[in-house]
Design a protein that fits this description.
With 163 residues, the chain is mostly helical. The protein has six helices and no strands. The protein has one domain.
Protein backbone atom coordinates (compact mmCIF):
# COMPACT_ATOMS: atom_id res chain seq x y z
CA UNK A 1 0.00 0.00 0.00
CA UNK A 2 1.21 3.50 -0.86
CA UNK A 3 2.62 5.42 2.15
CA UNK A 4 0.93 8.62 0.95
CA UNK A 5 -2.38 7.06 1.95
CA UNK A 6 -1.15 4.95 4.91
CA UNK A 7 0.11 7.87 6.99
CA UNK A 8 -3.15 9.87 6.89
CA UNK A 9 -5.15 6.69 7.52
CA UNK A 10 -3.05 5.91 10.60
CA UNK A 11 -3.37 9.50 11.88
CA UNK A 12 -7.14 9.57 11.43
CA UNK A 13 -7.57 6.11 12.96
CA UNK A 14 -5.45 7.24 15.93
CA UNK A 15 -7.85 10.19 16.21
CA UNK A 16 -10.78 7.77 16.22
CA UNK A 17 -9.22 5.72 19.01
CA UNK A 18 -8.19 8.70 21.16
CA UNK A 19 -11.44 10.60 20.69
CA UNK A 20 -13.55 7.50 21.35
CA UNK A 21 -11.64 6.76 24.55
CA UNK A 22 -12.09 10.36 25.73
CA UNK A 23 -15.79 10.57 24.89
CA UNK A 24 -16.86 7.21 26.28
CA UNK A 25 -14.62 7.32 29.35
CA UNK A 26 -16.14 10.71 30.18
CA UNK A 27 -19.61 9.30 29.58
CA UNK A 28 -18.91 6.24 31.76
CA UNK A 29 -17.37 8.33 34.56
CA UNK A 30 -20.31 10.73 34.52
CA UNK A 31 -18.13 13.80 34.80
CA UNK A 32 -15.57 15.58 32.65
CA UNK A 33 -12.01 15.16 33.91
CA UNK A 34 -8.69 16.64 32.85
CA UNK A 35 -7.45 13.41 31.25
CA UNK A 36 -10.53 13.36 29.00
CA UNK A 37 -9.35 16.76 27.74
CA UNK A 38 -6.00 15.22 26.85
CA UNK A 39 -7.81 12.58 24.77
CA UNK A 40 -9.91 15.25 23.02
CA UNK A 41 -6.88 17.41 22.21
CA UNK A 42 -4.71 14.48 21.09
CA UNK A 43 -7.57 13.21 18.94
CA UNK A 44 -7.92 16.68 17.42
CA UNK A 45 -4.18 16.87 16.67
CA UNK A 46 -4.23 13.44 14.98
CA UNK A 47 -7.39 14.26 13.05
CA UNK A 48 -6.06 17.63 11.91
CA UNK A 49 -2.80 16.05 10.74
CA UNK A 50 -4.65 13.26 8.96
CA UNK A 51 -7.13 15.66 7.39
CA UNK A 52 -4.29 17.90 6.20
CA UNK A 53 -2.50 14.93 4.64
CA UNK A 54 -5.71 13.61 3.05
CA UNK A 55 -6.54 17.05 1.66
CA UNK A 56 -3.10 17.27 0.07
CA UNK A 57 -3.69 13.84 -1.45
CA UNK A 58 -7.09 14.89 -2.78
CA UNK A 59 -5.64 18.12 -4.18
CA UNK A 60 -3.22 16.05 -6.24
CA UNK A 61 -6.22 15.04 -8.34
CA UNK A 62 -6.14 11.44 -7.16
CA UNK A 63 -9.54 11.70 -5.52
CA UNK A 64 -12.77 13.57 -6.02
CA UNK A 65 -14.23 13.66 -2.51
CA UNK A 66 -15.74 17.13 -2.10
CA UNK A 67 -18.38 16.06 0.42
CA UNK A 68 -15.81 14.07 2.38
CA UNK A 69 -13.46 17.06 2.53
CA UNK A 70 -16.31 19.36 3.55
CA UNK A 71 -17.59 17.09 6.36
CA UNK A 72 -14.00 16.42 7.47
CA UNK A 73 -13.26 20.13 7.77
CA UNK A 74 -16.54 20.70 9.63
CA UNK A 75 -15.67 17.85 12.00
CA UNK A 76 -12.25 19.36 12.77
CA UNK A 77 -13.86 22.73 13.53
CA UNK A 78 -16.49 21.06 15.74
CA UNK A 79 -13.79 19.05 17.55
CA UNK A 80 -11.82 22.27 18.17
CA UNK A 81 -14.93 23.93 19.61
CA UNK A 82 -15.68 20.82 21.71
CA UNK A 83 -12.15 20.55 23.14
CA UNK A 84 -11.99 24.30 23.83
CA UNK A 85 -15.35 24.35 25.58
CA UNK A 86 -14.44 21.25 27.59
CA UNK A 87 -11.23 22.96 28.67
CA UNK A 88 -13.17 26.02 29.86
CA UNK A 89 -15.61 23.83 31.79
CA UNK A 90 -12.75 22.04 33.58
CA UNK A 91 -10.68 25.18 34.21
CA UNK A 92 -13.69 27.04 35.60
CA UNK A 93 -14.70 23.92 37.54
CA UNK A 94 -18.34 24.19 36.46
CA UNK A 95 -19.64 21.09 38.21
CA UNK A 96 -23.10 20.91 36.60
CA UNK A 97 -21.62 21.32 33.13
CA UNK A 98 -18.92 18.75 33.92
CA UNK A 99 -21.65 16.24 34.76
CA UNK A 100 -23.72 16.88 31.62
CA UNK A 101 -20.94 17.56 29.13
CA UNK A 102 -20.91 13.93 27.93
CA UNK A 103 -24.17 14.53 26.05
CA UNK A 104 -22.50 17.14 23.85
CA UNK A 105 -19.39 14.95 23.52
CA UNK A 106 -21.40 12.06 22.10
CA UNK A 107 -23.10 14.33 19.55
CA UNK A 108 -19.72 15.70 18.41
CA UNK A 109 -18.31 12.16 18.23
CA UNK A 110 -21.26 10.97 16.12
CA UNK A 111 -20.83 13.91 13.75
CA UNK A 112 -17.10 13.15 13.57
CA UNK A 113 -17.90 9.59 12.52
CA UNK A 114 -19.60 10.82 9.34
CA UNK A 115 -16.42 11.85 7.46
CA UNK A 116 -14.53 8.88 8.95
CA UNK A 117 -17.05 6.31 7.70
CA UNK A 118 -17.66 8.21 4.45
CA UNK A 119 -13.93 8.15 3.75
CA UNK A 120 -13.86 4.40 4.29
CA UNK A 121 -16.73 3.84 1.87
CA UNK A 122 -15.28 6.22 -0.71
CA UNK A 123 -12.05 4.22 -0.52
CA UNK A 124 -13.81 0.97 -1.40
CA UNK A 125 -13.88 0.46 -5.16
CA UNK A 126 -17.25 -1.31 -5.06
CA UNK A 127 -18.88 1.63 -3.25
CA UNK A 128 -16.74 4.57 -4.43
CA UNK A 129 -18.26 4.53 -7.90
CA UNK A 130 -21.44 5.97 -6.38
CA UNK A 131 -21.12 8.90 -4.00
CA UNK A 132 -24.83 8.56 -3.25
CA UNK A 133 -24.34 4.94 -2.16
CA UNK A 134 -21.38 5.90 0.01
CA UNK A 135 -23.42 8.69 1.64
CA UNK A 136 -26.39 6.41 2.19
CA UNK A 137 -24.26 3.68 3.76
CA UNK A 138 -22.52 6.26 5.94
CA UNK A 139 -25.80 7.62 7.25
CA UNK A 140 -27.04 4.09 7.85
CA UNK A 141 -23.94 3.09 9.85
CA UNK A 142 -23.77 6.30 11.92
CA UNK A 143 -27.55 6.25 12.38
CA UNK A 144 -27.43 2.68 13.71
CA UNK A 145 -24.66 3.62 16.15
CA UNK A 146 -26.65 6.66 17.31
CA UNK A 147 -29.76 4.51 17.75
CA UNK A 148 -27.81 1.93 19.76
CA UNK A 149 -26.48 4.66 22.07
CA UNK A 150 -29.96 6.15 22.46
CA UNK A 151 -31.53 2.77 23.28
CA UNK A 152 -28.74 1.93 25.73
CA UNK A 153 -29.20 5.29 27.47
CA UNK A 154 -32.95 4.79 27.61
CA UNK A 155 -32.50 1.36 29.18
CA UNK A 156 -30.08 2.79 31.76
CA UNK A 157 -32.41 5.72 32.50
CA UNK A 158 -35.40 3.40 32.95
CA UNK A 159 -33.41 1.24 35.36
CA UNK A 160 -32.32 4.28 37.40
CA UNK A 161 -28.60 3.90 36.60
CA UNK A 162 -28.25 6.97 34.44
CA UNK A 163 -27.19 10.51 35.27
Amino acid sequence: MNMTIVLPMVAITAALILYTIGVFAERHKGTLEAWHLAMFWLGLVCDTAGTFLMTNLANDGSANMGLHVLTGAAAVILMLFHASWATLVVVRNQEKRRESFHRFSVVVWLFWLIPYVLGMFLGMPAVASSTLAACGLTLLVVGCIALAIFLYDRKRRDSGRFK
